Amino acid sequence: MRLEVDKEQLAILRRALQARVHDMQLRLGSEPGDEGYQREAALSTQLLRQVEDLERRAGRRTWGAGDAEFYPSNDKD
Q1: 66 beta partners
Q2: Are strands 69-72 and 3-5 parallel, antiparallel or unpaired?
Q3: Is the pTM of the predicted complex or chain greater than 0.90?
Q4: How far is it, in rounded angstroms, from Cα 59 to Cα 40?
Q5: CA neighbours within 13 Å on the CB side: how many for 74?
Q6: Mind listing the pLDDT tens digit for each residue in 1-24?
Q7: Rounded CA gap, 11 and 6, in Å?
């Protein structure tokens, strides 16, 4: 699967992931025994770190996502 996102969309994705990770961490603080939720929180945090890295490198280029990892697109503006 491939998802094309521009710089503005990437920023929105990062903010949404930050909010989700924050909410998950709060829930895990009150309900630490949920293994499925712990895994989702870990994967969400990993994805957030990847998006943050892409955002740092993005400039005005388009980036794609495939199989939970992001790769730079070959397309240039």
Answers
A1: 69
A2: unpaired
A3: no
A4: 29
A5: 0
A6: 787 888 888 889 999 999 999 998
A7: 9
